[in-house]
Amino acid sequence: MDAKGFVEIDGSFLEGGGQALRNALSLSCILGKPVRVVKIRANRPKPGLSHQHLHGVNLLRDICNADVVGNSLLSTELEFSPRAILGNTYRVETHTAASITLIYQMALPVLLFAGRPSRLFVSGGTNVAFAPQVEYMQQVLLPNLKPFGASFDLKVQQYGFYPRGKGSCQLDVQPVAKLDAGQFLDFGHLQSVSGVAFTAGRLPMSIAIDMQRTAQREIHRHWPDEKCSIQAVKHSQEKAHDNGAGILMTAITSGGCVLGAASLGEKRVDGHVLGSETSGQLAEYLRKEICVDDHMQDQLIIYMALAVGLSRMRTGPLSKHTRTAIHVAEQLTGVKFDVAVESGGQTIVTCEGLGQRNEML
């Protein structure tokens, strides 16, 4: 903490993207600690606040009635001084394909510590590169937050893809008195694989069917006796204006683990390649018998840091996103994460949480 009372976070640390900023501001709101984030997105081709990050910053400013300095496009330094968290209805219109899920990722933990339920409408991209697809948030993040006692309801009103966006979603959040410790250690055995393969706009249904059939065939090759049901969908013109394609696969184990793998179609979409890549990624998690997939591990760090009691997760090698999230959480909360690398590509992450209570309830 500096002379002005700010905790300084180095945005260039490890991942050097938006992760440090998102987690720092979320924790700032929840803990009531002013933060200064410097060298924002220093490792990106265009450093500083992008449209997406700026919308997230301004949303948290409104939720916490915060004083903010540096909230302008491409700003590389930001000072954020929060006040009380206000549960309310909020709207964010990005007018771009900015990721809706990354904006929700910033606001969700904060709204859990509000004094009343909140509703958050965001327009932008539902399925865009370098961000969780909206189906991943619904099918993988939601069940992984339930051990913490947290929940949300996410409705897609319209799907939006790069470059125009035009998607819209509604997120409803019920506040919690506290977060329970989460345990993600018992893999058990594979019970089922489900998912959705979709196309939209001018992309034909045949691409979704190629994704579906290839993904199912690959899973049945390794686990012939397990149920694998991928749904092939062509979004209607009302649900999606533009061209888009993607696939999400979700595995559920007898130990209560929910793991996800997803791919997004680019300009030239080969459904067989997307289906094969996604099922291969999921199969790797299942072979290693991990409980938290590569894209979920970093999202759980903030909840582990705030929870009451000892949280533990069995995952694969830690991503730079996750190590960045741990670094920011340790700086702001004072908790310590223990990382133990085990044989077979497993990593056990343990944290005695801060035990943050919701003073608004």
Briefly summarize what is shown.
This protein is an alpha/beta fold and 361 residues long. The chain is built from 8 helices and 16 strands.
Shape: globular
Give the CA-CA distance, first to last residue.
Answer: 29 Å
Which bin fits the share of residues in helices? 25-40%
Note the total helix count. 8
Tell me the β content: 25-35%
N to C succession of SSEs = EHEHEEEHEHEEEEHEEEHHEHEE
Instruction: Quote the average pLDDT.
Output: 95
Residue windows where pLDDT falls under 50 for at least 5 positions: none
Using DSSP, what is the number of strands? 16
The largest pleated sheet is described as:
4 strands, mixed
Structural class: alpha/beta
Strand order of the largest sheet: 1-2-4-3
Radius of gyration: 20 Å
Structural description of this entry:
The structure is a single chain. This protein is α/β, with parallel strands linked by helices. It is built from eight helices and 16 strands. It has a four-stranded mixed beta sheet, with helices on one face. Strands 5-6-8-7 form a four-stranded mixed beta sheet, with helices on one face. Helix 1 (19-31) runs parallel beside helix 2 (51-64) and helix 7 packs parallel to helix 8. The radius of gyration is 20 Å and the shape is globular. The model has no long low-confidence stretch (mean pLDDT 95).
Which descriptors apply to this entry?
single chain; 361 residues; alpha/beta; four-stranded mixed sheet; 16 strands
